[in-house]
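Late entry, evening session. Most of the bench is empty. Finally got around to the prediction I had been postponing all week. Sequence below, unchanged from the version circulated by S.P.
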Amino acid sequence: MTKIDDIPLSLAVLAALTLGLAPFFPEPHIWQKLKMLAAGQLVRPIDIFDLLLHAAPWGLLVVKLARGARG
């Protein structure tokens, strides 16, 4: 967890807003994949990998904020 603590919060926010949302048009990719997941259409391995890839920066940001809130 010390590796996560070494990452600046600003970099985690930047990664979540750029890599996590790219491509931006016609809709953010992660939003498209989350809609597919909710509809039960997320079955192809490439789509699952894509969801994990775009969710990783958001996961990092959540962990970073949670660790910062604890102290």
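Two things to note before I forget:
Residues 2-70 form one domain.
The chain is about 75% helix and 0% strand.
Will write this up properly tomorrow.
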